[in-house]
Amino acid sequence: MAALTTDQIQRVFQDGICGRTALYALKNVDATDTVDVAADFKVVKGGGIVSDTGTTIGAVTIAGTVLTVPSGPADDAVWMLVVGVAV
Predict the structure, then answer these.
(1) pTM of whole model > 0.85?
(2) Under 8 Å CB-to-CB from 36, ≥6 apart: which residues?
(3) CATH classification of 6-86 is 3.30.200, yes or no?
(4) Contact of 31 with 11, CB cutoff 8 Å
(5) What stretches of 9-73 adopt beta strand conformation (E)?
(6) How many angstroms separate the CA atoms of 1 and 31, rounded?
(7) Residue 52: strand, helix, or coil
(8) DSSP code at position 3
């Protein structure tokens, strides 16, 4: 488990002023890696990932604004969709 660094996380889409939806591109991701989305969300309500190859689809675990990647990815490129309350 490792916290992804800023060069591994890129927000590629965001919509919403009160409620927010954001799509992130994550690079070199392993299962149980964590992503902190506090810069974009006050509260995270849900989130999920799809690996770039489509071999892993799953829900993230939420602890405040820190999201944990589910089992599956190993040095993968991953798309992560997050919904919640905007900052």
Answers:
(1) yes
(2) 3, 65, 66, 67
(3) no
(4) no
(5) 9-15, 19-29, 34-36, 41-51, 57-59, 61-63, 66-68
(6) 7
(7) coil
(8) B
Tokens, residue 87: 């900052």
**C-alpha pair distances (Å), 33 with each of 17, 63, 64, 72, 79:** 28, 13, 15, 11, 14
For the stretch 59-86, pLDDT in tens is 999 999 999 999 999 999 999 999 999 9
**In the numeric block, which tokens belong to residue 34?**
């964590």
So where are the chain's domains?
6-86
pLDDT (tens digit per residue) in 1-32: 799 999 999 999 999 999 999 999 999 999 99
